[in-house]
Amino acid sequence: SIPLSFFGGIGGASRNGILIKGGNFLEALQKVDTVVFDKTGTLTKGIFSVTRIQALSTKSEEEVLRLAALAEMHSNHPIALSIKRAYNASHEGNVEHYEELAGYGVKAHIDGQTILVGNDKLLHEQGIAHERITTPQSVVYVALEGELVGYLIIEDTPKEESKEAILALRSLGINEIIMLTGDHKATAQSVGEKLGITQIEAELLPHQKVEKLEEIMARKQGKGKTVFVGDGINDAPVLARSDVGIAMGGVGSDAAIEAADVVIMTDEITKVATALKIARKTHTIVW
Ligand code: ADP
Ligand code: MG
Whose Cα sits closest to atom 18 in ligand 1? Predict the structure, then answer.
Protein backbone atom coordinates (compact mmCIF):
# COMPACT_ATOMS: atom_id res chain seq x y z
CA SER A 1 0.00 0.00 0.00
CA ILE A 2 1.12 3.54 -0.68
CA PRO A 3 1.17 5.86 2.35
CA LEU A 4 -1.54 8.47 2.05
CA SER A 5 0.93 11.31 2.28
CA PHE A 6 2.52 10.19 -0.99
CA PHE A 7 -0.71 11.26 -2.62
CA GLY A 8 -0.36 14.54 -0.75
CA GLY A 9 3.13 14.94 -2.18
CA ILE A 10 1.99 14.10 -5.68
CA GLY A 11 -0.92 16.55 -5.35
CA GLY A 12 1.37 19.27 -4.03
CA ALA A 13 3.76 18.68 -6.89
CA SER A 14 0.98 18.80 -9.48
CA ARG A 15 -0.18 22.14 -8.12
CA ASN A 16 3.36 23.31 -8.92
CA GLY A 17 3.15 22.03 -12.49
CA ILE A 18 5.19 18.92 -11.67
CA LEU A 19 3.65 15.62 -12.71
CA ILE A 20 4.98 12.63 -10.74
CA LYS A 21 3.98 9.26 -12.19
CA GLY A 22 3.61 7.38 -8.90
CA GLY A 23 4.57 7.18 -5.23
CA ASN A 24 7.69 5.10 -5.90
CA PHE A 25 9.25 8.01 -7.82
CA LEU A 26 8.43 10.39 -4.99
CA GLU A 27 10.21 7.99 -2.65
CA ALA A 28 13.21 7.78 -5.01
CA LEU A 29 13.33 11.60 -5.19
CA GLN A 30 13.84 11.66 -1.42
CA LYS A 31 17.11 9.76 -1.84
CA VAL A 32 18.60 11.74 -4.71
CA ASP A 33 22.22 12.83 -4.36
CA THR A 34 23.17 13.14 -8.04
CA VAL A 35 21.55 15.20 -10.78
CA VAL A 36 22.62 14.70 -14.40
CA PHE A 37 21.54 17.22 -17.02
CA ASP A 38 21.35 17.04 -20.78
CA LYS A 39 22.71 20.28 -22.27
CA THR A 40 20.92 21.30 -25.45
CA GLY A 41 17.30 22.23 -24.90
CA THR A 42 17.50 21.46 -21.18
CA LEU A 43 20.15 23.78 -19.68
CA THR A 44 20.23 25.87 -22.84
CA LYS A 45 17.32 27.33 -24.76
CA GLY A 46 17.85 24.93 -27.63
CA ILE A 47 17.27 27.80 -30.01
CA PHE A 48 20.38 28.21 -32.10
CA SER A 49 21.18 31.06 -34.39
CA VAL A 50 23.62 30.95 -37.28
CA THR A 51 26.21 33.63 -36.51
CA ARG A 52 28.77 32.89 -39.23
CA ILE A 53 28.99 31.11 -42.55
CA GLN A 54 32.36 30.07 -43.86
CA ALA A 55 32.82 28.85 -47.42
CA LEU A 56 35.87 26.66 -48.04
CA SER A 57 35.78 25.77 -51.70
CA THR A 58 34.57 27.51 -54.83
CA LYS A 59 31.04 27.52 -53.39
CA SER A 60 29.68 30.81 -52.06
CA GLU A 61 28.51 31.33 -48.47
CA GLU A 62 24.95 31.54 -49.76
CA GLU A 63 25.39 28.17 -51.47
CA VAL A 64 26.83 26.55 -48.33
CA LEU A 65 23.78 27.72 -46.37
CA ARG A 66 21.40 26.59 -49.13
CA LEU A 67 22.91 23.10 -49.23
CA ALA A 68 22.70 22.80 -45.45
CA ALA A 69 19.07 23.96 -45.38
CA LEU A 70 18.14 21.50 -48.14
CA ALA A 71 19.75 18.58 -46.36
CA GLU A 72 18.08 19.52 -43.05
CA MET A 73 14.67 19.95 -44.71
CA HIS A 74 13.09 17.02 -42.87
CA SER A 75 14.92 17.31 -39.56
CA ASN A 76 13.38 18.78 -36.42
CA HIS A 77 16.65 18.90 -34.49
CA PRO A 78 17.20 22.37 -32.93
CA ILE A 79 20.29 22.76 -35.14
CA ALA A 80 18.27 21.96 -38.28
CA LEU A 81 15.60 24.50 -37.30
CA SER A 82 18.21 27.24 -36.91
CA ILE A 83 19.69 26.54 -40.34
CA LYS A 84 16.26 26.60 -41.99
CA ARG A 85 15.45 29.89 -40.23
CA ALA A 86 18.71 31.42 -41.44
CA TYR A 87 18.12 30.35 -45.04
CA ASN A 88 14.49 31.52 -45.13
CA ALA A 89 14.12 31.09 -48.88
CA SER A 90 12.02 28.42 -50.49
CA HIS A 91 13.62 25.00 -50.70
CA GLU A 92 14.25 24.02 -54.29
CA GLY A 93 15.65 20.58 -54.76
CA ASN A 94 14.53 17.03 -55.11
CA VAL A 95 15.35 15.04 -51.94
CA GLU A 96 15.88 11.47 -53.14
CA HIS A 97 17.14 10.05 -49.89
CA TYR A 98 17.35 11.36 -46.37
CA GLU A 99 18.81 9.93 -43.20
CA GLU A 100 19.11 11.43 -39.73
CA LEU A 101 22.17 10.12 -37.92
CA ALA A 102 21.46 10.75 -34.23
CA GLY A 103 24.42 12.44 -32.56
CA TYR A 104 26.14 13.07 -35.90
CA GLY A 105 23.92 15.05 -38.25
CA VAL A 106 22.12 14.31 -41.50
CA LYS A 107 22.92 12.72 -44.84
CA ALA A 108 20.82 13.50 -47.91
CA HIS A 109 20.86 12.84 -51.64
CA ILE A 110 19.56 15.87 -53.42
CA ASP A 111 19.40 16.20 -57.18
CA GLY A 112 21.83 13.31 -57.48
CA GLN A 113 24.39 14.70 -55.06
CA THR A 114 25.27 13.59 -51.53
CA ILE A 115 25.19 16.29 -48.87
CA LEU A 116 26.39 15.77 -45.31
CA VAL A 117 25.59 18.26 -42.57
CA GLY A 118 26.82 17.65 -39.06
CA ASN A 119 29.71 17.50 -36.66
CA ASP A 120 33.33 16.48 -36.70
CA LYS A 121 32.41 12.87 -35.91
CA LEU A 122 30.15 12.71 -38.97
CA LEU A 123 32.97 13.80 -41.30
CA HIS A 124 35.36 11.42 -39.61
CA GLU A 125 32.93 8.52 -39.89
CA GLN A 126 32.28 9.29 -43.57
CA GLY A 127 36.00 9.55 -44.29
CA ILE A 128 36.03 13.21 -45.26
CA ALA A 129 39.35 14.96 -44.70
CA HIS A 130 39.03 18.22 -42.81
CA GLU A 131 40.63 20.53 -40.37
CA ARG A 132 38.89 20.52 -37.01
CA ILE A 133 37.55 23.96 -36.13
CA THR A 134 37.49 24.72 -32.40
CA THR A 135 35.35 27.52 -31.06
CA PRO A 136 33.24 27.89 -27.91
CA GLN A 137 30.25 27.87 -30.27
CA SER A 138 29.00 24.84 -32.18
CA VAL A 139 30.37 24.08 -35.63
CA VAL A 140 28.22 22.46 -38.32
CA TYR A 141 30.21 21.18 -41.28
CA VAL A 142 28.75 20.97 -44.78
CA ALA A 143 30.15 18.47 -47.28
CA LEU A 144 29.11 17.92 -50.90
CA GLU A 145 30.07 14.79 -52.83
CA GLY A 146 32.72 13.84 -50.29
CA GLU A 147 34.32 17.26 -50.11
CA LEU A 148 34.07 19.80 -47.31
CA VAL A 149 32.56 22.98 -48.80
CA GLY A 150 32.13 25.05 -45.66
CA TYR A 151 30.87 25.29 -42.15
CA LEU A 152 28.38 27.24 -40.09
CA ILE A 153 28.98 28.63 -36.61
CA ILE A 154 25.84 28.40 -34.54
CA GLU A 155 25.15 29.62 -31.03
CA ASP A 156 22.76 28.58 -28.33
CA THR A 157 22.49 30.35 -24.98
CA PRO A 158 21.82 29.03 -21.47
CA LYS A 159 18.27 29.54 -20.19
CA GLU A 160 18.02 32.56 -17.88
CA GLU A 161 17.07 30.39 -14.91
CA SER A 162 19.62 27.58 -15.39
CA LYS A 163 22.24 29.08 -13.08
CA GLU A 164 19.66 29.62 -10.36
CA ALA A 165 18.43 26.05 -10.82
CA ILE A 166 21.95 24.68 -10.23
CA LEU A 167 22.44 26.91 -7.16
CA ALA A 168 19.10 25.73 -5.74
CA LEU A 169 20.21 22.10 -6.09
CA ARG A 170 23.56 22.81 -4.44
CA SER A 171 21.77 24.51 -1.55
CA LEU A 172 19.78 21.28 -1.10
CA GLY A 173 23.11 19.51 -0.63
CA ILE A 174 23.29 17.94 -4.10
CA ASN A 175 27.03 17.92 -4.74
CA GLU A 176 27.16 15.79 -7.85
CA ILE A 177 25.82 17.81 -10.74
CA ILE A 178 26.88 16.50 -14.13
CA MET A 179 26.29 17.65 -17.72
CA LEU A 180 26.04 15.14 -20.57
CA THR A 181 26.10 16.28 -24.17
CA GLY A 182 26.64 15.21 -27.74
CA ASP A 183 28.10 18.62 -28.47
CA HIS A 184 31.84 19.18 -28.56
CA LYS A 185 34.02 19.82 -25.50
CA ALA A 186 34.75 23.51 -25.99
CA THR A 187 31.04 24.36 -26.28
CA ALA A 188 30.10 22.21 -23.30
CA GLN A 189 32.83 23.77 -21.16
CA SER A 190 31.78 27.29 -22.03
CA VAL A 191 28.18 26.51 -20.98
CA GLY A 192 29.45 24.74 -17.82
CA GLU A 193 31.47 27.80 -16.82
CA LYS A 194 28.45 30.06 -17.18
CA LEU A 195 26.32 27.80 -15.01
CA GLY A 196 28.78 26.55 -12.42
CA ILE A 197 28.95 22.95 -13.60
CA THR A 198 32.44 21.43 -13.64
CA GLN A 199 31.57 17.77 -14.19
CA ILE A 200 31.08 17.53 -17.95
CA GLU A 201 30.91 14.58 -20.33
CA ALA A 202 30.91 15.78 -23.96
CA GLU A 203 30.89 14.38 -27.50
CA LEU A 204 28.64 11.50 -26.50
CA LEU A 205 26.49 9.62 -28.98
CA PRO A 206 22.96 8.83 -27.76
CA HIS A 207 23.92 5.28 -26.66
CA GLN A 208 27.05 6.60 -24.93
CA LYS A 209 24.86 8.91 -22.84
CA VAL A 210 23.12 5.80 -21.49
CA GLU A 211 26.50 4.15 -20.80
CA LYS A 212 27.76 7.26 -18.96
CA LEU A 213 24.63 7.36 -16.84
CA GLU A 214 25.05 3.68 -15.98
CA GLU A 215 28.69 4.36 -15.01
CA ILE A 216 27.61 7.22 -12.74
CA MET A 217 24.94 5.04 -11.11
CA ALA A 218 27.34 2.10 -10.66
CA ARG A 219 29.93 4.32 -8.91
CA LYS A 220 27.44 5.01 -6.15
CA GLN A 221 27.05 1.32 -5.28
CA GLY A 222 23.38 1.60 -4.37
CA LYS A 223 23.85 4.64 -2.17
CA GLY A 224 21.73 7.54 -3.32
CA LYS A 225 19.53 7.90 -6.36
CA THR A 226 20.34 9.55 -9.69
CA VAL A 227 18.08 11.95 -11.53
CA PHE A 228 18.45 12.65 -15.24
CA VAL A 229 16.88 15.80 -16.64
CA GLY A 230 16.36 15.98 -20.40
CA ASP A 231 14.21 17.29 -23.21
CA GLY A 232 13.81 14.00 -25.06
CA ILE A 233 15.72 14.87 -28.22
CA ASN A 234 18.25 12.05 -28.46
CA ASP A 235 17.99 11.34 -24.73
CA ALA A 236 14.74 9.40 -24.18
CA PRO A 237 16.72 6.18 -23.42
CA VAL A 238 18.65 8.02 -20.67
CA LEU A 239 15.38 9.33 -19.20
CA ALA A 240 14.11 5.75 -19.09
CA ARG A 241 17.28 4.27 -17.59
CA SER A 242 17.83 6.73 -14.70
CA ASP A 243 16.35 6.20 -11.21
CA VAL A 244 14.16 9.22 -11.84
CA GLY A 245 13.91 10.65 -15.37
CA ILE A 246 12.66 14.22 -15.42
CA ALA A 247 11.43 15.64 -18.72
CA MET A 248 10.70 19.20 -19.68
CA GLY A 249 7.03 19.05 -20.68
CA GLY A 250 6.78 22.45 -22.31
CA VAL A 251 9.21 21.84 -25.13
CA GLY A 252 9.79 18.13 -24.61
CA SER A 253 8.85 15.58 -27.24
CA ASP A 254 6.09 13.01 -26.75
CA ALA A 255 8.83 10.38 -26.47
CA ALA A 256 10.33 12.30 -23.54
CA ILE A 257 7.02 12.61 -21.70
CA GLU A 258 6.43 8.89 -22.27
CA ALA A 259 9.90 7.83 -21.10
CA ALA A 260 10.00 10.16 -18.08
CA ASP A 261 8.96 9.44 -14.48
CA VAL A 262 8.44 13.11 -13.71
CA VAL A 263 7.30 15.78 -16.15
CA ILE A 264 7.80 19.50 -15.52
CA MET A 265 4.80 20.85 -17.38
CA THR A 266 5.91 24.49 -17.18
CA ASP A 267 9.37 23.81 -18.63
CA GLU A 268 11.02 25.70 -15.73
CA ILE A 269 14.30 24.04 -14.86
CA THR A 270 14.24 25.53 -11.32
CA LYS A 271 11.40 23.08 -10.61
CA VAL A 272 13.87 20.19 -10.43
CA ALA A 273 14.83 21.56 -7.00
CA THR A 274 11.15 22.19 -6.19
CA ALA A 275 10.40 18.50 -6.88
CA LEU A 276 13.20 17.42 -4.51
CA LYS A 277 11.91 19.78 -1.82
CA ILE A 278 8.33 18.52 -2.11
CA ALA A 279 9.57 14.91 -1.95
CA ARG A 280 11.64 15.62 1.16
CA LYS A 281 8.70 17.29 2.90
CA THR A 282 6.54 14.27 2.12
CA HIS A 283 9.19 12.06 3.69
CA THR A 284 8.97 14.01 6.96
CA ILE A 285 5.21 13.47 7.09
CA VAL A 286 5.44 9.73 6.38
CA TRP A 287 8.06 8.84 8.93
P1 ADP B 1 22.89 17.34 -26.98
O2 ADP B 1 23.50 16.16 -26.35
O3 ADP B 1 23.74 18.57 -26.79
O4 ADP B 1 21.47 17.57 -26.52
P5 ADP B 1 22.39 15.88 -29.54
O6 ADP B 1 22.71 14.54 -28.96
O7 ADP B 1 20.98 16.12 -29.98
O8 ADP B 1 22.86 17.10 -28.59
O9 ADP B 1 23.32 16.12 -30.80
C10 ADP B 1 24.71 16.01 -30.64
C11 ADP B 1 25.44 16.64 -31.79
O12 ADP B 1 25.15 15.96 -33.02
C13 ADP B 1 25.08 18.09 -32.05
O14 ADP B 1 25.80 18.96 -31.22
C15 ADP B 1 25.47 18.21 -33.52
O16 ADP B 1 26.86 18.43 -33.63
C17 ADP B 1 25.14 16.87 -34.10
N18 ADP B 1 23.80 16.82 -34.75
C19 ADP B 1 22.73 16.09 -34.33
N20 ADP B 1 21.67 16.26 -35.16
C21 ADP B 1 22.05 17.16 -36.10
C22 ADP B 1 21.40 17.77 -37.25
N23 ADP B 1 20.14 17.50 -37.59
N24 ADP B 1 22.14 18.63 -37.99
C25 ADP B 1 23.41 18.93 -37.67
N26 ADP B 1 24.07 18.40 -36.62
C27 ADP B 1 23.41 17.53 -35.85
MG1 MG C 1 19.30 17.42 -26.08
Answer: 105
